[in-house]
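Cross-check.
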Amino acid sequence: MKNEKRTKIILGIIFAALLITGGLPLWKHHHFRTPVVAGPGVTRVIHLSDFLPSLKGTVADTDVFVLEGREPGGKALVMAGTHPNEPAGELSAIIIIENAIVEKGTLFVIPTFNVSASRETKPGDGYPLYFDIPTPWGAKRFRMGNRDASPLEQWPDPDVYIHYPEKQLLSFLDIRNTNRTWPGRPNGLLMERVTFAAMELIRKNAVDVAVDMHGAETMFPVTNCIVAPEKSAKIAAMVSMTVKAMEGFDNHVEPSPENFRGLSHREIGDYSDALPFLLEAPLPFLDQPTGPKTEKLMLDGKDPFLLSLSRKKKLFVSYDENGWPMDKRVGQHTSVLLEIFRQYSKKFPEKAIRLSGVPRYAEIVKNGVGSWFHDPAKADPKSIYEE
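Predicted model, tokenized:
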């Protein structure tokens, strides 16, 4: 009897040790925060809960950085982190927050749209917990996120997700995907309330342009592109042609499907006066037939299996030994974003959106993403926000 009791105690201790050893890294990841330095162009920082008070105090509330121009003009919303496992958008948003000066108009920037998804990853799929971006002052660390909000923070999932208000039947997982819950509802589940709050931000501020930054697999046809509905299509086409001709990287336009509901590039346009655009940059890390899902693959996009598939013309983007590094992805986002503002301003000069201080594709590819991140150790503590 004593031996049996001793065995149970030993096994209990071993189980507890394994639980702590396995759980502690995930706990640290969940609570890790990346400092963001509000640059000279940031005039105030508000929250998504300002547009839907029920978000206040929840994991879904998030910072909205406001950059108000010296002259009145148009208004734009820039969103990143809708899918936190597509981090080039987040890095692009932080470059804007830390460097942009708005000369005309107003910019609202949300670097981490789905906070819950940003605080979990996919260890079962071998995802790294973090990735580091080199800067002139050292490495800047970011959490590696997941596509969907954590089931621990929005539970239970329905057997079938019925989209509101269109009543389209979607996968049960899509209720935690903030690119499937637009336009949202004020009394819905947590992610529906996130997108509803964003719609309220758009409507109450009379936002003219809304841009949602993403990444997509090289084997997925909707990649390396701008996704736009009919009302945004002409500007998107001009942007695509201009960046190809003037900046030398491929980009095309994909139409927003009318019958696939819940998407930002569809619902923002249907439920507000804003012109929506969704940007997709190639992201080899998300492709299925790759080697291990390492931090290196996330950063340089180099994979021998994808290279082999490229030679067999199985990919939807050009792909060679150089891969698809983070610098190219972020550079494409900033260039396309700036070109959207330029083309919009040409079409609607009375609502122009003009900013300076944001690097374009060639600058970022040459100098690296980290060149535009500010050292929090040298910044005014009042200007530092943790994302």
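DSSP finds ten helices and 15 strands in the chain. The mean pLDDT is 95. Passed to J.P. for a second look.
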